[in-house]
Specification:
Helix content is 68%, strand content 0%. The chain is built from 5 helices and no strands. Helix 2 packs antiparallel against helix 3, helix 2 packs parallel to helix 4 and helix 3 runs antiparallel to helix 4.
Length: 97
């Protein structure tokens, strides 16, 4: 049986790095923001870029991007359309039409 102790060691080191609540919150918040963008398939690359650019923990940012899974896609789409309609103050762009 092959043991992957190094994977556990790397994961523990990554999760321990930048563990202040403010930094973890910033990384998760950035990940959720990036996960709500329409760049499906590129969220991981965006999380890497944001982590390097802002000095965030990649693992927490990547976990935040996981909001854009198929279970939430409909809610994200409806919410995005609703927010856009509110910002544009235009009722012609609705989910039902």
């Amino acid at each position: 049986m092959i043991r992957f102790r190094w994977v556990r060691a790397v994961m523990a080191a990554v999760l321990r790095a930048h563990r202040t609540p403010a930094k973890v919150g910033a990384a998760i918040g950035a990940g959720v923001f990036l996960g709500c963008t329409p760049f499906f398939g590129f969220h991981t690359l965006l999380a890497v870029a944001a982590s390097l650019l802002f000095g965030l923990n990649f693992m927490w940012a990547w976990l935040g991007t996981q909001i854009s899974n198929p279970l939430f896609a409909g809610f994200l789409t409806a919410g995005s359309i609703g927010v856009g309609r509110y910002l544009l103050r235009d009722a012609s762009y609705t989910v039902g039409r």
